[in-house]
Amino acid sequence: MVDNPAARALFGDRLGLAERYAELLVTAGVVRGLIGPREAPRIWDRHLLNCAAVAELIQPGARLVDVGSGAGLPGLALAIARPDLSVVLVEPLARRTAFLVEAVEELGLAGSVAVLRARAEEATGQLPGGLADVVTARAVAPLDRLAGWCLPLAKVGGRLLAIKGASAAVEAAEHAAAVRRLGGGAPVVRVCGAGLLEPATTVVEVVREGAATRPAKRRRPARRSTSDGAPGRLGARRR
Ligand SMILES: C[S@@+](CC[C@H](N)C(=O)[O-])C[C@H]1O[C@@H](n2cnc3c(N)ncnc32)[C@H](O)[C@@H]1O
């Protein structure tokens, strides 16, 4: 067992499951290029604990959508720490959703976690179970773009919880007007895991207040076709 008081506090009796997920990340996750090899020694501090700490902001029994899950962060860490949550992992890249589907199965989380292969901006209407109480995202996009993608995935009154680093307060202030135009309330900076983690996890919280409007489409260069770059039409798998 991991000898870490924060890990015990955050994962409780699911610490063994968190250890199995950590093992998957530092083995298959690294081999398949989802986790950098330099991340392996800090998989607990920088990744699992940093993400699981956000659980303190999430109400019991919430429906959670994690946008841009990658190898499952923060969505899978939260699903492990909080068995009461129902979680959808939204990720456009096939290589990553394949890993997520396997991890969900291997960890025995099929009853509470679904994987949806889609871009966030195309995921409304595809979410198994409907709109979310809470949408999470870590290291996916700047706050204004995240608000445009994530607020439409939340119910009115639901929240975006964006894990941000030291730039959280600056980003919250810089993007407040854009977030408001997109249907969000004033971004608020929250600190999670204080006294447990060093550094604590910084989160920008935005409440969906009204109709979420989509940002104007940005012009994009012609699409490249890559083996894993194309978004799925309906890649949802209940697993
Ligand atoms: C830097 S990774 C972060 C992965 C994970 N959240 C973490 O913290 O380890 C960014 C992820 O966002 C995904 N992503 C990029 N654009 C997206 C979009 N429009 N909708 C959903 N996910 C997207 C990428 O495929 C990638 O897995």
Describe this structure in words.
The chain is α/β, with parallel strands linked by helices and 239 residues long. The chain has one domain (5-212): 3-Layer(aba) Sandwich (Rossmann fold), CATH 3.40.50.150. Helices cover 32% and strands 20% of the residues. The protein has helices at 5-11, 15-31, 43-52, 75-81, 94-106, 143-150, 168-181; strands spanning 63-67, 86-91, 113-117, 132-138, 154-164, 188-192, 201-207, 237-238. It has an eight-stranded mixed sheet, with helices on both faces. It is globular. The model is unreliable at 222-239 (pLDDT under 50). It binds S-adenosylmethionine. S-adenosylmethionine is lined by residues 67-70, 73, 90-93, 96, 119-121, 138-140, 149. The site of S-adenosylmethionine has 17 residues, from strand 2.
